[in-house]
## 1
Amino acid sequence: MAKNPGESQPIDAYLASLEDPAAKKTLGALRMQLRKLLPGATETISYRMPTFKVDGNAVAGFAFFKTHCGYYPFSGSVVPPLKAQLAGYTTSKSGITFPPDKPLPAKLVKTLVQARLAEIAASGKKPSATKKKAAAKKALITDRVTDSAVKEATGRDWKGWMRALDTAKAGELNHKQLVAHLAREVESTWWQQSIAVAYEQARGKRVVGETAATGFQVGVVRTLPMGAEELWELIATQAERWLGAGATLILKPGEDYEVPKRRGSPGVRGEVRVVKSGQRLRMTWQPDGWKKPATLQLTLMPKARGVAVNVHMEKLPDAKAREAMREHWSGVLEGLAKE
């Protein structure tokens, strides 16, 4: 790795400190490509490597380690689905390594970047506090995902999609219908959702973090160091560990559940709606003081080393509740990961 690249050292200094000429040339070119793919991104040093951030979210990073270079999307969900395109490379869930004299193909870098951007756009991750002004400006998906990225993935840039959807009278469709319409042309569900949200934002049918169909929503994902069967058993038989102290739960559609009020936390009640053993649980969620229930869904996705848990909530009453639920479920998953 570069010599003593301190956390605040800029990328220029990092590259200048590299002694391997091939690595310096390859990573310098990679940096230029990332600049084109991520105009307006913040260039910084994070985890001792050059990093590109958009609205406070790390999108791409790279580094040199003695004999090889590495590319990192700062996500464990970007690399695995691209297994076929990454044949021949050494990969892990979090990155790709390659020889200094054999740069990653430009097309592959674009795919990695657009996959990470689509993931961020779909998750609605909260920008860092120091980026609030920039986040307000970049809140629209059309500002966060470049024209080149959407065109590379779907065949049209943002203006092209706006025109095509206007012609198809997409403004008369609800969110579900709009996504179904897009599915005729776009295979990726991530891009279907991203384009649908971008169109609704552009035509005033949606505010940031809210959809016409599902209201305010939020998602939290975490990979836990246990098997899917073990986690499902915990969910089914140890409700107190993820719902709260004193919680009662029977995993059967139509069954009511309750979490008693305790110091610092309101009581919660709801009804189990959908149970797919080992895979998915859907239920209502209504804390004390909420006029209407929200929807809570847990989805389990087995991974090579553990199980990824996707906690998704819809029909939240407002933006304040959305951020409270993001913090709540992040804490719950963090606690489970440490046990």
## 2
Amino acid sequence: MKKYLSTIFILLTIANVGCKNLDVYPSDAISTETLVTSTAGLTNALNGSYALMKDHIAFNGTTDLNNMYLRQFYQLSDFASDDIVCGQVTTDPFFYSFNLSHSPTQNNTRYFWYVSYKIISGVNTVISAVEKSDVQDAAKQQLLGECYFLRAFCHFNLVRLFAKPYSVDPASPGIVLRTNLTDESTKARSSVAEVYASVIADAEKAASLMTQSRGVQYASKEAAWSLLSRVNLYKEDNQKAIDYADQVIGSGRFSLSTASTYPTLFANAQTSTETIFCVAFTQVDDYGKAGSIASMIYSDGNSGWGEEYASSSLRNVMSKHPEDVRWSYIVPLKDESGNMQKKNGIEIYYISKFSFQDGSPTLSSPVMFRLSEMYLNKAEAEAKMGNTAAALTDVDMIRKNRGLEASLYNGTLPSGYTVLDAVLEERRIEMAFEGHRTYDVYRNKRSLNKAYWGYHLAGLKETDIDLTKTPAGYANLSVSYTSPRIIYFLPVDETLSNPLAAQNP
């Protein structure tokens, strides 16, 4: 019987991957016996799974510095949104996110799928080994809970990228669930609803197991609650989204960044009072221009390609409040006379949310969950339950900490807004460039309005179009939640090796 991955191979692989950045045993010291009997051995193996989110690992026999789990996740998510504009034609496969010309053979989705299941397989190995052990002390339970969290987190990111939103069609094909080591290599996709149920079950188990805090660079029960709040919001189980958000808020472990500290939140993610869970990068992990998350969206002239910018669409939404401290992460490029610089007719507004850890323009520890999202999850759920006052109060919690004390809603909606409009607008500004925008639009059955010049308009030049007129005939100017291209094709590697995994249309 052919299994989908060898247990020993996974153990050795995750140990080797983790050695570069983490204080771990050498790979030849890891065995199933050591893993079961030693907390240090378990920690070592688990650290390897965390490292897979940030390391460049070999895929199809080569190591491409552009291939990294987090880099691909942000590009596949945000580059398809209306928050980032494409500044030029490129041969990098992230271009397909802008112009929606997806392909089963594009390298970024293939790598992301591969490394996601590599992480899942690694934690499945740890889970299997630990659950066979008779010794279940608090330290091991904590590490076991972190494994369940990582499995839930990876499955959820996969289903967001490769399957329709739950709110659109929960019965539609989701992804291939891998929750044990005895799976056959050929396995059909579970439905979206089944994937969500698995994610929720794993996250709930994770929260019940984790009783210790190892720092925000590792999973915790609060991180599991945060994931549960997010997943239930996507599922439109609104009361549960609120309840889990309240558990995080009520934990007392976190506080919102203020207007004075917010501009350095992301550079200091590991020590920010707002960070619930981040992937910790160190100076050793500063990939610079070659493959950092920041490389395509920021440049100081010496580092980063800086070819993608904050869109005019997002900046127009933010223009009502120039005092908003969230502008600090949108950096205009001006000449010595103060004139805005352009590239291919597009004003250059760099994005610095993934820059300036330890002063480096290409280094950060990306934040996966933070307290602001919990208030926004609550606000959206409350809006959908008809609790306008509660929703606006939660939105105001964010606004008063972003320099907008004089512009709070105070329970009153602006003319022309619904409460959901107000919440989603705040969510867009607050969570910009953090991998949320496309999912927030499509799961709410809305369209992305990309009526601005950029290279998402495939085959056109700026002089070819008039954006003041109807978008009819301009591909990718408006993207409906019903479009099949809001999600990606399954990678060709999966459909060839697993014929039971039906391809997306």
## 3
Amino acid sequence: MKNALLLSIPLFISLALCACADSDRDRVSRMVKEWEGKEIVFPEHSVFTVQGKDTVSYLIPKSEYKVIVFVDSVGCISCKLQLPKWKEFIHEVDSLSNGNVPFVFFFQSKDVRELRYILRRDNFSYPVCIDTEDQFNTLNRFPDEMMFQTFLVDSENHVKVIGNPIHNLSVRELYLEEISGMETGSLPVTTVRPDSAEYHYGAVGENETVTKKIFLINTGKEVFRIKGVTTSCDCMSVEYDWGEIPPGGMASMTVSYKAESPGDFWRTLTIYGNIPDRSFTLDFWGTVR
């Protein structure tokens, strides 16, 4: 797409900052602009494996586009990775590009055992580099925020789009538009109100799965068309059997949470569609006993 760099970065800023305070907007805006057109540098000797055990001969290809994914070791690794969603996105990109857009994964962690477990558990067979020495990050000094550690780059490894397409469906659209060279048409905007801003699961037993039904009400004058949902952790899943809500109508979703280790938990669900800020986020709380 011509002038995609000029289109994608400013648009991403507007998408990413809609819910931020003014100070956060300024900080993130400066950071995104800093990475605009920046070259991603790879370590000279990177070892790639399949599921963390079988070393494979993998040369980082020079192609028109690449998706570069860096994940650091801060926080919940499984929540950050969400590998089943990456498999879905890879399939979508492969279908759009005839398999001509490679994905380059660098996972930074000294706990190789945990990464191997997650890779095997999610049957993720794509080559990854487990960067125990943090060489990739040392060369590039990636932002600390998870949202800004994934990049769509051109044949010279210059950043075209920054953002995580798994955790933000609006960013996902930017990736697909850039790769396909087509901009998606916009829909008339409406307003949607959830029946609550936050939801409480209460006390949950360890390894127990609990569900919560939520309701969305279309308070605007246009049909609400949902584009999808994302969750902050793969311990949450969402089920719904509708694609639209007419003006004045209501629809439900069932949100499931599989309890992890004991302690208080806070998870989020983000819903995307033709609303003013393109998305809104709901909070889910509870305590694992």
